[in-house]
Amino acid sequence: LLVTCGWIAWEATQRLLFRHVPVEASPWAFGVVLLSIVVDVSRSRALLRVAKKHRSQALEADALHFSTDVWSSCVVLVGLTLVKVGDWTGNHELFAKADALAALVVAGIVVFVSARMGKRAVDVLLDRSPLESLGSLRDAIAGVAGVEDVSWVRARESGQTMFVETSVRVGRNLPLEAGYGISREIEDAVRNVLPRSDVVVRLEPTRTGDEDLRERVAATAWAMGLQVHNVAVFEEQGRPSVEMHLEVDGETTLREAHEAADRLEAALHQDLPELGGVFVHIENDRGPAKTAQPGDRPKIVAFAREACHEHSGVRCTEVSIHETGWGVFVRLWCVFPAEMKVGEVHWTASRIEERIREAFPCVAQVSTHAEPDE
Question: Which has fewest Cβ within 10 Å: 45, 103, 220, 368?
Answer without folding.
Answer: 45
